[in-house]
Every structure is written in structure tokens, then in C-alpha cells.
Amino acid sequence: MKRIVLLLCLAAAVAAQVDHPHRHPPRSAREYARVLNDPKRDAWQLPDQVIQALNLKPDEVVADLGAGAGYFSRRFAHHAAKVYAVDINGELLRMAAEGAPANMETILAAPDDPRLPPGAVDMVFLCNVLHHIANRPAYLPKLARALKPGGRIVNIDFYKKPLPVGPPEAMKIAERD
User: What is the pLDDT of residue 86?
Assistant: First the structure.
């Protein structure tokens, strides 16, 4: 049975203490990549703890949806057999591919289609991305089709409350939505 796992931002308390000037994506992909891969992000995103909590197996295939310049994709590549770095921005994907591990492949998605191979993925991972997907009821079944039997969809996103990081509160998704 396929399961959907919902995780909320792990570090809301830490986030309140972090100075983060970008509440919206910067205009250029190069500037956005600097923001996405800024080492200061580790203080509130806690990527090592996230990866540990996911309990990845070395034979698993991971799809990092909204991979950007590879913040999580590169980390997953050290723990999984294959990683699909999936994004709608080709320039960010080109940056993610620069010097990427051999087991990481980029996929240029469409806004309404992740373009993942059917039945090929053990885990679809979304981090701070779901609130950007316009038609989630039509999009989520496309993610489910990419899953292997027993696969999972993991979503980490911002709490729907004022935070010094992330999108405006109006863009955030409440846990019940």
C-alpha cells in the first residue's frame, strides 16, 4: 500500500532565531541557487536530521521534487542507489548537475507533471515545495504513479503561521488542507 507521510518544518523554534532575508525566490536562477544552497539554511532546515528520520536504504530510489540546485538531492545521493533531482527550472537543474554524484539524474518537470517514470521510485520527497503546486488534487496522483509498491511521499513544508523564513502565510498550507 502506498502511503503519504506529512512532516512539517522540523525547526520552527530555530527558524524564529535565523535571519533570512529572502521570503520570495530571487529573480535570477543563479541568485536563487545561492539562497537555496546557503549553508545558513542548515540551521533551520536541519538536513542531516531530516535524512536520518527518513531512514533511507542503500538500494532505494529517491525523487527530490523541487530539487532546485540540489540541496537535498546531493545529500540523498550518499544514502540511496539513485536520485532523481526534479525541478521546473532548467537552469537550476544544470547547476545541480555540475559535479553531481553519478547516481543523481536531473528531470526537467512541467508545472503540472513531475515527469517521473512510473513505478520507479521508493520515495518522492518534497521540501518547501507543495505550497507552490497550483493544482495539488491533480498533481499528487501523478506522484503516486511514480511510486514502487510500498513507496512513500514525504512532504516537509512551513507551518501556516508567521515565520522569518519561507513564503507569506497566505501561501502556506495548513496541515488539514
Answer: 97
